[in-house]
Design goal:
The complex is a heterodimer of chains A (545) and B (193). Chain A is an all-alpha fold and 545 residues long. Chain A has helices spanning 18-24, 35-38, 41-85, 98-130, 137-159, 173-195, 204-224, 230-265, 272-286, 301-313, 315-329, 340-363, 365-371, 375-405, 412-444, 451-488, 500-509, 518-544. In chain A, helix 3 runs antiparallel to helix 14 (375-405), helix 8 runs antiparallel to helix 12 (340-363) and helix 8 (230-265) packs across helix 14. Chain A is globular. Chain B has 193 residues and is mostly helical. Chain B is built from five helices and two strands. Classes of the chains: A mainly alpha (545), B mainly alpha (193). At the A-B interface, helix 3, helix 4, helix 6, helix 7 and helix 8 of A face helix 1 of B.
């Protein structure tokens, strides 16, 4: 049986101007709801509002904290990117050298931004789908403080040159272990919610979140054991790094998509049994992927072959998830124009399909021979962590914040600006570095081309990445400004919630407008552009007050 | 509530299955075959390994050579295919997955000159005009020429500082020792299986 995820019903949205609708897609269940209009959903809405009130403080804390790390991480990433083609820039100081800035960018983004916001959003979704409050909230807050302290100390250690020296595990042991234990606490909270849930049906999002919160602590603890050295350590390293994506970020991201797509469109998931298949096959195959980073490396071939096979088998969970997400969205695609949340989530869901199929393809020996050791892989990693996971988190934050704070986003335009900065930045990033990476790989495998020529030919692609980095960083500052305005300049209360299905129903009842001739359309487009420019200018003026 | 337990046991079970496969089995199958290290990293070279780790050389340089016929690693002179024995006892491993710069497994043979390495570390553009490698001036001391008897780096004219000498620190020397110790001269046959 499907859970009723589309509980929200509008009162009368035909009176909401189009501009407002953008926000009303995103509004809070805490808002006063006309109980008569909502009908059977009323109990659920009130219950959700109570749950949101309880989870408000801790979820906001995780989101704000993660967003701060996002800004720091973006600056580091941009600096590292510029250093790739301006090697002497900021080269005098040891702590500003590329080899320290780059790992710190990764660690603050992965363990600061992505993990913290991921945990906050995950706990909120669990509270919603299991209909129970988040337990141990004060301890989770203390945990968050410890987490931030560890990131700060660990970051200083990396800048001072005391990195652990393993990719994805640069934070010194004494800072990564407390972070793992904070996530153990979050996992413990999740499991206790699972056992005390008020909702008998276990929705698929909960499965994925439990998987993430159970797997990551195990992963963190095993990788911190001092029993690995040499080649075996390299194997452990890539087993960890790939699983940090596969068993930590990916399940959280998919859980968000499975929750938000039905929630915003008002439609149930296309095939529920398929989502269960997708879940178990993800766990079965993703776990084994790590060694495809060591193709041609000094490990027995059969280990590598197992990983390649598992990577190719990842097509099963990816296609099942893709069918579910895209088939649910397909009739409601127009809704992305109105819902900021859905815009981010659809971009992220498409990226997931793209990046995962690309990943399976990349693991095949013939292709790996070319792209291994090139910038192509860096782009692939960003497609996973940024295009998929980070965009999903943005979508979730835009959905959740008005509900848990009961304050509305101020400017749909700034949200749109953030989306386009992030999306265009990422597309430039991926196209540039992947083309550049393939060229680099082909040239590197041709011994007649001197290595210096190979390096020279990558420079222009590295430059395009720096341009993308500026766009992305600008997008992140717009995002942070949006969050800041919502938290501090509280002025708008959220309107009653609407789903896309409701809007479509309402439209069906209205008489259809006369078809417009093409020449008229062109004329309208120009006057519309003119008007929107004027409106935009006015909006900027209003914003300054 | 049995469903909850199936879910959690399923997650943990599948995790442990792969964990044993990818961390414990390699330990069982690889380590007993590794009898002695090919490359001894000890003394000042071991200190150099620490400098290598602390400055994040791994983010641009790999230390794993693919077998002949798979890529052009061999043809470029980066050495024979790496084997597990090359890394015995080494922690943290520095195999790396990126070649913004070339592989360094055989750098001790390809660039045997200590002076070349010191110049290259001080500022790579002193020896390779178009290099995009970061400079490491903080591994060197700049002292007044009349206050030291040590020999400074023989910098090209445009990099010289009048009245000063550029003296490598112990860290720079250790790093060069480490780089010179990296070689693939031993014609070890790849392991069976």
């Amino acid at each position: 049986m499907m859970m009723n995820l589309s509980a929200s019903r509008p009162t009368n949205f035909s009176k909401i101007p189009k501009n407002k609708l953008d926000l009303s897609m995103n509004t809070s269940n805490l808002a006063q709801v006309n109980a008569a209009a909502v009908g059977n959903g009323a109990d659920s809405l009130e219950q959700d509002a109570r749950l949101d009130q309880k989870s408000s403080f801790i979820v906001v804390a995780f989101i704000l904290s993660g967003s701060a790390w996002l800004l720091l991480g973006s600056i580091l990433g941009t600096v590292a990117s510029f250093k790739m083609h301006m090697p002497d820039w900021l080269g005098e100081q040891a702590w500003l050298t590329f080899g320290r800035i780059r790992p710190l960018h990764l660690n603050w983004m992965a363990y600061g931004w992505a993990s913290q916001v991921g945990v906050g959003v995950s706990l909120w979704i669990l509270s919603r789908v299991l209909k129970t409050t988040i337990p141990v909230r004060p301890w989770l807050f203390v945990g968050l403080l410890v987490w931030n302290l560890c990131l700060l100390i660990g970051g200083i250690e990396i800048l001072m040159g005391h990195s652990r020296g393993l990719e994805w595990l640069e934070l010194p042991i004494y800072t990564i272990v407390p972070i793992v234990f904070v996530i153990v606490l979050a996992g413990e909270a999740a499991i206790s919610m699972l056992y005390t849930r008020k909702q008998p049906h276990l929705y698929i999002s909960a499965w994925y979140i439990i998987a993430a919160l159970v797997s990551f602590p195990l992963l963190g603890i095993v990788s911190s054991l001092p029993i690995f050295e040499g080649t075996v350590q390299a194997g452990m390293n890539w087993w960890y790094a790939h699983n940090a994506l596969g068993l930590w970020f990916t399940p959280m991201g998919l859980a968000i998509a499975y929750f938000l797509i039905p929630k915003v469109t008002g439609r149930p998931i296309y095939s529920y049994p398929l989502s269960v298949l997708g879940f178990w096959s993800l766990l079965l195959f993703y776990n084994w992927n790590g060694f495809h980073h060591l193709i041609g490396g000094p490990v027995p071939t059969w280990f590598v072959t197992i990983s390649i096979a598992a990577s190719v088998m990842m097509i099963i969970p990816v296609v099942t998830v893709a069918v579910n997400h895209h088939m649910t969205i397909i009739g409601s695609f127009e809704a992305v124009k109105y819902s900021p949340t859905l815009r981010f989530v659809v971009f992220a869901a498409m990226s997931y399909t793209f990046v995962s199929l690309q990943g399976s393809f990349q693991a095949i020996r013939a292709f790996n021979e070319t792209i291994h050791f090139t910038h192509y892989v860096i782009a692939h990693a960003h497609a996973g962590v940024y295009s998929f996971f980070t965009m999903m988190l943005f979508g979730a934050v835009y959905y959740i914040m008005p509900r848990i704070t009961n304050w509305e986003w101020h400017s749909p335009k700034l949200i749109k600006l953030h989306f386009w900065l992030s999306a265009s930045g990422m597309i430039i990033y991926l196209v540039g570095l992947q083309i550049g990476g393939i060229i680099q790989g082909l040239e590197m495998n041709n011994p007649d081309i001197p290595f210096m020529t190979v390096v020279n030919n990558t420079k222009k692609w590295l430059l395009s990445r720096s341009f993308a980095a500026i766009l992305l960083t600008a997008g992140h500052f717009v995002f942070a400004y949006n969050v800041f305005r919502l938290m501090h300049l509280r002025k708008v209360r959220p309107a009653p919630p609407v789903t896309w299905l409701d809007i479509q129903r309402q439209r069906a009842q209205q008489p259809k407008p006369e078809p417009v001739p093409f020449s008229k359309k062109v004329a309208n487009a120009f006057s519309g552009l003119n008007q929107s420019l004027k409106r935009w200018a006015n909006d900027v003026k209003v914003d300054e007050h | 509530m049995i469903k909850n337990s199936i879910l959690i046991l399923g997650i943990v079970g599948l995790f442990l299955f792969a964990m044993i496969g990818l961390t414990i089995l390699p330990k069982v199958f690889i380590e007993p075959n590794v009898e002695k290290a090919n490359v001894y990293v000890w003394g000042r070279a071991a200190e150099g390994h620490k400098v290598y780790v602390s400055n994040g050389c791994i983010y641009c340089h790999s230390q794993q050579v693919r077998p002949k016929g798979f890529g052009a690693d061999f043809e470029r002179g980066w050495g024979r295919a790496s084997v597990a024995t090359d890394y015995k006892g080494l922690t943290p491993h520095q195999l790396g997955t990126m070649r913004t710069g070339p592989d360094l497994s055989n750098i001790g043979v390809r660039q045997p000159g200590r002076d070349w390495h010191l110049l290259h570390l001080y500022n790579p553009r002193t020896v390779i005009k178009e290099s995009i490698m970061p400079p490491y001036p903080y591994l060197f001391e700049i002292v007044d020429a009349d206050k030291t008897l040590k020999e400074g780096l023989k910098l090209p004219p445009e990099y010289q500082i009048p009245g000063k000498k550029v003296i490598p620190t112990d860290e720079a020397n250790a790093l060069v020792d480490y780089l010179l110790s990296l070689n693939q001269k031993d014609p070890i046959k790849p392991q069976q299986n």
